[in-house]
Amino acid sequence: MRRFFNILCLTALMFILSGRMHAQVVADFNVVPMPDKIEINKQKAGFSIARNVVIQCMQPTEEMMRNAMFLSEYLEDNIGRKIIIDNKPNKKVARICLALNSKIAGQEDYRITVSADRILIEGASAQGVFYGIQTLRKALPLDHGDNIVVPVAKVEASPRFKYRGFHLDVGRHFFDIKTVKEYIDMLALHGVNTFHWHLTEDQGWRIEIKKYPLLTNVGGYRNGTVIGRNSGLYDNVRYGGFYTQDECREIVEYARQRYITVIPEIDMPGHMLAAMTAYPELGCTGGPYEVERMWGVFDDILCAGKERTFQFVFDVLDEVMDIFPSKIIHIGGDEAPRKRWQECPLCQKRIADEGIKADEKHSAEDKLQSYFTKRVEEYLNKHGRSIIGWDEILDGDVNPSATVMSWRGVEGGLIAAEKGHDVIMSPNSPLYFDHYQTPQTDWINPTLIGGYSPLDKVYAFEPAPASLSENARKHIIGVQANLWTEYIAHRELLFYQALPRLAALAEIQWLQPERKNYSEFVERAKRILPFYDCYGWKYCDIKD
Q: Rounded CA gap, 394 and 415, in Å?
């Protein structure tokens, strides 16, 4: 009798465990970034992710079929098996349908409609459909196989800003193609549509320019790296690397397929020591120069008095434009000391010949940088491109077509917007993600750049304050966070510094300010952490 009782108990336990193993898990559309509208009907049976589900393209164009393949891959990450793509009309089969709908207003807007037998993801463009796919992907929990039910629902979203950027500095530390692709995948998960690729620095030139091979052969490597915070001690280990033009095109295409535009940055006239080491005639003194081993701002910059300098810049930009189809090219413009120009006879002759005069706010050398910027801008304009630069380009006259990236706080961006320039808000506080994101007692790396930008501070940032005029507000076209890598040498720390602050940035980029709620965001952000784990991306823990 006791044996029978034990068998009965064991059978009951197995039944209970079996029930738990097969318990249904309901998908949750409260994701990051939060959709504008989520309507759930709990009275009706939802859509079950069962084994007979297929993906169907209503308009099987190349882009839409690529979206379908992405969805299949993402679902495999979620549930551990591929869902096939089958475009044959069959209403008897449960299906996830991808469709273009011209009645949807914005090109990046999406709509998800869920019924018992179908999930329909629609957009006015394939890009909108892609963002709908990302939301469905994040709504489905990981590792629950066939036990996921998507509730009957209607979900809609439209991004607040058309420019939603994230940046990577590969000049200070170099990251291989595989890592850059992972970085782009991370951006796609968060609805980012612009990758700002900082390719040149005092510490290394990272892009192949065929007309100037020494830029990478010489300028791509430094003879050691400073230890700690400019201690004067060096590891004396040769360090560097660069991307071939084919590799750059590979990244451009990889990003394009995920609806991300790559904006290259060739920083000038400052931050050019790597180039000047390779071609010392580009500097005012003629060198010799050295690819920098320390971090900081250095006196040696491109000589604005030499025509060969401008020919060099134009030649480089010709090859950059051939690789990168983006309509805007970043020319930097920041942190260019005037010391060498003040001492350089050729620069002083340029100032005299061009009739450049100082005023109460700016020296003649300040105005010489404006001359430099304007010549580069005009060259790019002739080739159908526009410039974007750090807010220092406002120190002179630039065309209204120039976009300003405001990094020294928001003030420069506000001034630029009032002048009619398009503006990307990217203030160093709180949108430099090389800053610490935890209190000092938790710092895992004592040699980050400094600054403290925790998750809540990032989330609270408002790029278009109420004090702006209505016309100026229209010129705040986007928001971007930057990740500088002086003290970030490895993939693990790179992702750790980005995450989960990128989730907070995504909500700034997508949500209208009145819809933001930090405590609700924290709960939603916790649900994206398993995706970071799935892809092996380190991240900072979220604390309530």
A: 9
